Amino acid sequence: MSIVKRNQRKVLASVLVESTVGVDLAKGKDTSITVTVDKADASRAEGIMDEFDFFKAAMDSDLAQLKKFSHIEDKLEYKAKAIENHQYLDYLRRYQAQGTNHQNMVLAWVVIWLVDLGHWKTAFDFVPLLMTQNQRLPGRFSTQDWPTFLIDQLYDEGAKHLSQGRDAVEHSQVINLFTQFIHLLDTHQWRLSELIGGKLYAMAAKLEQSVFNLGNAYTYGTKATALNDKAGVKKMVREIAKTIGKDTDL
Questions:
Q1: How far apart, in Å, are the Cα atoms of 199 and each of 20, 160, 165?
Q2: Which residue of 92, 132, 234, 243 is 20 to 30 Å from 57, comparing CA positions?
Q3: What is the pTM of this model?
Q4: b/e string for 177-216 if b means 16 or more Cβ within 10 A?
């Protein structure tokens, strides 16, 4: 049984005990009180139980367990099972729906794990929440900027597939990940440093060029160079411009 479920049972038991305080048992069973307790168990347990504390305890335990693994594959397997067994996503969706707002290390770590596992679309669902609430990355990370963290990871993902050739890029659908993230950036107007912005759009341009989406490659490459003159795609943009009949000052 997970830490979360054990704590939930303890809390429910305490609610039932506290609910009988003040009842004169010598006078017999007070059915009216018993019925009220039975109907209120779930809601009263939720009112008393601080979900964050329980899920934080589960996450602290998981992080300690991860230190025992030396192989990345084992760590990834553990993370996948922990997300499912501890129902972290259900908790985070409740947290999101309820409008709760506090520094939440469970939210931060689960998003990081989702990225590690390649579950990008689910991770992206929580990025606006991370940004709106100014959630911090765990202290062990060198950056406290979520867009920078995600772009670094996306860049590595793109570079991995790009090195394997056109078929790998197409089958991985990594271009869709870049498209979705760029859409998030445009929608929420998150600020990026010129270096990081150039890095994002340069890789997007290279991926698009690898599958002969030259119009998109030109657009992204031009933006990358505008953000960072040393983004490394000037030559590619000039060659694409000639191919598709575009004028360029690069």
A1: 63, 15, 20
A2: 132
A3: 0.80
A4: bbeebbebbeeeeeebeeebbbbbbbbbbbbbbbeeebeb
- And the tokens for 92? 């985070």
Residues in contact with 222: Cβ distance below 8 Å, sequence separation at least 6, in sequence order:
237, 248, 250
Give the distance, in angstroms, between the CA of residue 169 and the centroid of all CA atoms in the same chain. Answer: 23
Question: Among all chains, which residue has been given the structure tokens 């794990």?
Answer: 113
Length of the chain: 250
Q: How many CA atoms lie within 13 A of 127 on its CB side?
A: 26
Q: How far apart are CA 159 and CA 94, in angstroms?
A: 35
